[in-house]
Amino acid sequence: MNFKAFAVISFAVANGMLLGCKTAETGKTTSNASLGVETTSVKNKTIPEWVPKPAPYHAAETILTDLVHTKLRVSFDWQKQHLIGEATLTCKPYFYPQNTLILDAKGFEIKSVELEETAEPLKYTYDGKKLTINLDKTYNRTQEYKVLINYIAKPNELEAGGSAAITSDKGLYFINPLGEDKDKPRQIWTQGETEASSAWFPTIDAPNQKMTQEIYITIEDNFKTLSNGSLIYSRQRPNGMRTDYWKQELPHAPYLTMIAIGEFAVVKESWKNKDVTYYVEPKYKNSAKGIFGNTPEMLSFFSQKLGVDYPWDKYAQVIVRDYVSGAMENTSASLFGEFVQLSNRELLDHSMDEIIAHELFHQWFGDLVTSESWSNLPLNESFATYGEYLWFEHKLGRDDADLGLNSDLNNYLSEAQRKQVPLIRYHYNNHEDMFDRHSYQKGGRVLHMLRNYVGDEAFFVALKKYLTDNKFKTAEIANLRLAFEEVTGQDLMWFFDQWFMKPGHPELQVDQQYENGKLTVRVFQRQDSVYAPLYKLPVRIAVWENGKKNEYPVTISGFRSEFEFPAAAKPELVVFDPDAQLLATIQHEKSEDELIYQYHNAPRFQHKFQALNLLLDKVNEPKVAAVFQDALKAKFWKIRSTAVFAFNATRFMATANGKDATGKIKFNDPQFEPVRKSIRQIAESDPKTSVRADAIATLASLHDPQYADVFTKALTDSSYAVAAAGLDALVSQENAKDLLPKVKHLQETENAEVASALGSFYAGHGDATQFPWFEKQLKQQTGNDLSNFLPVFATYLLKLPATEKNKGIKLLEDFARNHENFRTRLGAYRALQILADDPAVQQMIRNIKENEKDNRLKLIYGEM
Q: Per the similarity annotation, which family is this (predicted)?
């Protein structure tokens, strides 16, 4: 599962609004500056906000029955949005004799239950969630039996549920079922994780079950189908119908079972005589290989790196509408949300390799070997996240991979301000609470540390052993530890205990002193040891002396660790953890000269990036400016982008030294003319489109008419990101209103970035004549794009006459009250707040808040 790209709004809101708490006795919110987080004081004891709250214990599911095989025959009632199903389940007792079979079956109409071999009806009880079947006799663990169930699944009649990671749990989804929306395809697709497969077929919906399966899908002949395993045959039926028979011959978990149905274009490739297919909407047929085309190379790379070939019959990837998360690693058939579906022009700005690599790596970690319980979810998600790093390291190089690693650390630390829990955790309120930045980003970083500690060869040999020993089975964290211990010959309990089983992370303070030919480095662990462990940290310290670098391996332990190194002269630079592999916060004060030296000499991206960010506020000083001028020519695009940002006048004005005594922005001074020329050149010709867009934004911040031609030219750039940046830049031009005819052609562009920029332009300089275009955008845009566009629309409404303004408010109200996606409702709610000067809108907002049923939004609205 990948929900990162899908959860931006909910995480941003949660991080921004849910950090505060109140003192138990006084009701006052307090702050502990040394911790950097809100805290609660209870009877003179300060408890950080992130300390885990009491939650129920969740054991792995007890296995009474072994679900051996599932055979499904399914057809559909589009009008009622029902699935008509026949399920034949092959089962046997797991160990102890059994005379009942208990199945998960949510919201079904049960037509009949019988023993298949004899067609004998079986007695059963059904409470709408659990189907308990009385078997014809008591079976022992060597005896298989088959139960035949005829049923109708009614997913839309289930009580609504979901989480921030997976916004709905009804399992089966009909998209535009009656074809009433001419701009949206008709589709059917499923989402099984975590326990929603049982909303469309009866099963034992637990991750520690493994089964083989067959699915016969009967559907209108104009639709393509996709499921797990191989397509055995397609047979025509009367009345324009067809039955496709899909067979999954290798065992996998029930939550990984999937179907997808739609009028897809199917683009085919192959890898080692296995089909590799991409299912997209027909208009994207020509860009399908641009989106997914690295998949065969990924299959080869991961198979070689892990020493275990891709295990399934085929690999398909399908993009669907209105998906409830980011993507899902269904066995041999990953499913993606529509944000992955891009035109060739959009692919100039966005690669989907991160999410594609994530789901593909799951085919080993999650599908071949499955975590035995949701408590062990990091065995799936941490590995998939680290698969992204491995792919970028291979394909693009270490800098790109390290950029992702740095982003993962920051994302985890953001969540850690309000939540610190063990990676492997048995206490939680809902199993979907496990889908967080701990299971993904923190876990990926922990695996990177493990790789750094044991070495590359041992790391991948141990992963091969883990996969081989546990293939087609389930595993818990001890299985991974034992694989590493057997390969390395080391007792690694200390590593797994502190990183997987304990909450928190090291908060390190590093200082140094040089005297009498000796360098002393002291490291202090500052995390609250009441709630987080004191860490054992094998690490290196790099010392540059007279231009030569030496590295010293050390081990941090206890509150205070001190190390002495010989040095004939005062070092130019000391870097703690030169590999930038630790999951930790590190405070290590450095002088301006040390930071400049670090930028030029530290080899890892993280250290160069850190130096630039710490020097940002001094960019007006000549020797610091020279560093950023050098960075404008850096090979790695993120360094160039950071340097471009440093000279942005909007940022520059916000710094303490950004102005001279007269208030003039020093960046406009003649001394910076070479910089301005470099940035203009970057804006016009940098090979990375995002850097070109950043450079345009920096030029726009100068409010200098000499760059107007750069902005106007950008409107016709092949990159949508550059065109959007050019449009944003033109908003602030003195003659912007005169440019309305020049930007009108962009109304036909089907790209969310350009639409957002054009909407902002119209909000500043348009009139009521653009209202139909905004209405069209509200129909066309989806997902996060729509949520982010709604406040732009509200800003535009501020300048309209009452008739159009009120019509627009009604549209926003409908989104806020009725849209099926809770993030879109949140976006509309925020948009209405922009218009809250109107008392009627204020009352509308209060009413929406009072009547909202979704607990996720009720919590957010309560903090707004």
A: Belongs to the peptidase M1 family.
Provide the number of structural domains found in the chain.
5
Strands 507-515 and 518-525: antiparallel
Is residue 726 classed as helix, strand or coil in its secondary structure? Answer: helix
Closest-CA residue to 332 (of 266, 250, 398, 261): 250
Amino acid type, 750: E
Residue entry with tokens 């009072």: 850
Question: Do the Cβ atoms of 151 and 110 come closer than 8 Å?
Answer: yes
3-state secondary structure 427-450: ECCCHHHHCCCHHHHHHHHHHHHH
Distance CA 186, CA 172 (A): 14
**Residues 635 and 648 sit within 8 Å (Cβ to Cβ):** no
Could you tell me if residue 94 is inside a domain? yes
**What does the pLDDT read at residue 518?**
97
In a domain, 715, yes or no: no
In a domain, 574, yes or no: yes
Query: What secondary structure does DSSP assign to 501-566, as a single string?
Result: SS----EEEEEEEEETTEEEEEEEE-S-TTTSPPPPEEEEEEEEETTEEEEEEEEE-SSEEEEEEE
Q: What are phi and psi of 752, to 5 degrees?
A: -65, -35
Residues 457 and 481 placed together within one structural domain of the fold: yes
Residue 194: C-alpha distances to residues 213, 334, 432, 806 (Å): 19, 15, 7, 42
Helix then strand count (H, E) for the chain reads: 27, 32
Q: What angle do CA 808, 813, 816 make, to 5 degrees?
A: 130
Cross-strand bridge partners of residue 421 = none
Residues 838, 845: contact at Cβ < 8 Å?
Answer: no
In a domain, 563, yes or no: yes
Could you tell me the CATH number of the domain that includes residue 539?
2.60.40.1840
Q: Rounded to whole angstroms, how far apart are CA atoms 857 and 714?
A: 39
Query: In sequence order, what are the residues at sequence separation of 6 or more whose Cβ sits closer than 8 angstroms to the Cβ of residue 570?
Result: 514
Answer yes or no: do 10 and 143 share one domain.
no
Which DSSP letter does residue 293 get? T
Tallying the residues shown for the chain, one arrives at 864
pLDDT digit string (tens) for 38-59?
A: 334 444 557 888 888 899 999 9
Boundary residue ending a domain (551, 582, 613): 582
**pLDDT score recorded for residue 653:** 57
Handedness of CA 562, 565, 570, 573 (dihedral sign): negative
Query: Whole-angstrom Cα distance, residue 747 to residue 772?
Result: 11
Residue ranges in the chain modelled with pLDDT below 70: 3-45, 652-667
CB 258 within 8 A of CB 70: no
Q: Specify the CATH number for the domain of residue 411.
A: 1.10.390.10
pTM: 0.92
| pLDDT recorded at residue 855 | 82
Looking at residue 30, its pLDDT comes to: 30
For 472-500, what is the HEC assignment?
Answer: CEEECHHHHHHHHHHHHCCCCHHHHHHHH
- The model's pLDDT over 452-479, given as tens digits with 9 standing for 90+, comes to 999 999 999 999 999 999 999 999 999 9
pLDDT confidence of residue 2: 84
Tokens found for residue 425: 């955790």
